[in-house]
Amino acid sequence: MTESSVESGDGRDPESVSRFVERFAAQLVEAGVPRMPARVFAALLSSDTGTLTSAELGELLRISPAAVSGAVRYLSQVHLVSREREPGSRRERYRVHSDQWYEALTSREAIIKRWEDALREGIVSLGPDTPAGRRLADTLEFFEFIEQDVAGVMERWRRHRAQAPDRG
Q: Which of 111, 113, 142, 143 lies 20 to 30 Å (CA to CA) from residue 92?
């Protein structure tokens, strides 16, 4: 029994679920996520188990195994999903975790640090008093500000989650 058939059997309207998946995916696309990874992520997020196989994703989204594979590869690289082997099987399940946003933002911190290093080098190369150097310095200042703010937000989130009742 597939996730889609399980969900349609629990009182949910499959068309309503499908509309949600497509609407949420469209919002992700507007934010810069490629279309197919956005659809796969939305489908995983909307499944009760948070896990689906390639075949289940293909059936649910009416996409090819190759499209699922490419989407999962992208989502894995940005730390939004993980792959798991089904015990005793060669099949993989793809999982979205409740802390996926935390993981995605945390991985972005390392990227931002690399950008900051490159910007510092660029400021030295271009000269801090040139228009380009000042533009890079402004960009560096922005990233440093964001990095501090994200670190504070993540710490507050960890405290909030530690105090929140278990959501099951």
A: 111
